[in-house]
Input
Amino acid sequence: MTPQSDEDEVWRQIVASFNDTAERDSADQPWPDSENLPVEPTRRVVKPPEEDLAAAADDDDSDADDDPGDEGDDEDEGHFVPPAPPPLPKLDLPTKLAWVALFGGPAYLLVAAMASWQMEGWALFTAVAAFIGGFVALVVRMGDGPPNDSGWDDGAVL
Output
């Protein structure tokens, strides 16, 4: 037998067993038993009724004088409230005009097409030119350098 005929035979076996189903024994658990995690029962947190909370608060009043920083806010423990985001930067007039042109030109064309308005050549040209001009103005004003307040350290060097 030649090596080519062995490869052909192996290929025929692969093609013949293409539609066969896999054995279910190996598919049930593809890893060893030593890697299985033990099943732990589900833990539940039960809140006491409101009356019990009020009674517990009355009992703890004597202890509250000892530690004034502890207010008993157990519900807020671990709860993160993010700070308010900083305000958006104020835009100058050319940037505002560029955004209006970028969205205004296609918006006019869309409204005119939906309303079946008769559009003249100068209106089409103005709308397309406004879109292209707004895009170019925003890209040119974007800048490609680091911010001026970044200091001498530009971050990690790899």
Notes: The mean pLDDT is 77. DSSP finds six helices and no strands in the chain.
